């Protein structure tokens, strides 16, 4: 079970990784 902080970190990392493709 992920903590909210981990979820936020993962979301931000995924967003940063996807940014060049947008």
UniProtKB/TrEMBL annotation:
Keywords: Mitochondrion. It comes from the Eukaryota. The keyword Mitochondrion applies. This is Cytochrome oxidase subunit II. The lineage of its organism: Eukaryota, Metazoa, Cnidaria, Anthozoa, Octocorallia. It comes from Placogorgia sp. SCF-2009.
């Amino acid at each position: 079970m992920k903590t909210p902080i981990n979820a936020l970190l993962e979301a931000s990392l995924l967003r940063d990784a996807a940014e060049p493709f947008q």
